[in-house]
Amino acid sequence: MHPETLALHATRMADANAGAVTPALYLSTTFEREGDGSFAHGYIYARNGNPNRDLLEQALAALEGGFAGLAFSSGQAATMTLLLALRPGDHVVIPNDAYYGTPALLEELFHPWGLTYTRADLTNLDEVRQSIHENTRLIWIETPSNPLLKVADIEAIAGLAREAGAWCVCDNTWATPVLQRPLDLGCDVVMHSTTKYIGGHSDVLSGALIFREDGELYQRVRRLQTIGGAIAAPFDCWMLLRGLKTMTTRVRAQSENAGKIAQALAQHPGIEVVHYPGLESHSGHAVARRQMALFGAMLSIQVKGGQAEALAFTSRLKLVTRATSLGGVETLIEHRASVEGPTTATPPNLLRISVGLEHPDDLIGDFRQALDS
Ligand SMILES: *Cc1c(COP(=O)(O)O)cnc(C)c1O
Fold this sequence. Notes:
alpha/beta; Aspartate Aminotransferase, domain 2; Aspartate Aminotransferase, domain 1; 2 domains; 40% helix; binds pyridoxal-5'-phosphate
């Protein structure tokens, strides 16, 4: 089945009560037991399972081509729960360019707890190879990466992980299963901040993990989800299922808009560089072309004139909103270095843009007027 059809089909819930076309919302925290002590519908208590969460987890698994999914209260909760499945003494390889919360978890929570980690440039396979130690249990991929849009070769890195006996995880938040399916390329787990494109409307905070197969890792993380309790709430699952229905169309249209904006900005004399994998000048263009259906709706620009001019430029924008986050239907721009704090390696003149569903000509017009004035 094509993803458009799957996104609609996999988000339906049979409703024997009313024949409702859209899923009912189950807010109950507890479920009735039969006289013999069994649970006729399989539900006991909402931390263990809930019909809206089950449906979301199954839909995400179907879209990523996985065995099962697990939904969490945020992307960070998903990452944290996955890392809790490792043991003190294990080692993790993570990208040197990544969503800043991933290394923050490793440094502030898991390093004191006993994990060690190495940050590597995932676009350099030799460097990845050299970062793998005897106790490496997990390699974390994020591609395209945040905020520099670096493109990692998923299939090659998943191969290195397999040789080393380590699990390979891909943060697929930016690409979504519409553009990239890491499980098909050999990854064991896909992670999502479903807050972004899957919700799609900047109104749900949530995360997910999708597993390629049943096994030790899935069983352990599923157990940690239940006992740790960082689960996605029923209404959030309901909202995400609604978001999923339009995800394929949104992501394609937003990616097309981003491509047009990247081209236009790359030609503007006020711009030092545009980081967008769809540009032929981008170092990851060939790999992106191979593993992505389209190049995504995220891009970063470096503005001539340093941080002061970058910030002044954002203040002259009229249609584009200055805010963090991404993946919603509205275009957002953000000065990443300010968000990431004094330890950041992000260039001070870098602005990250999450391209929305406005008409691309209106957006290009707004960027041009802000650059030219
Ligand atoms: C937002 C984001 C996260 C973290 O997700 P939250 O839902 O904010 O906890 C992780 N990875 C990437 C790539 C993100 O964009």
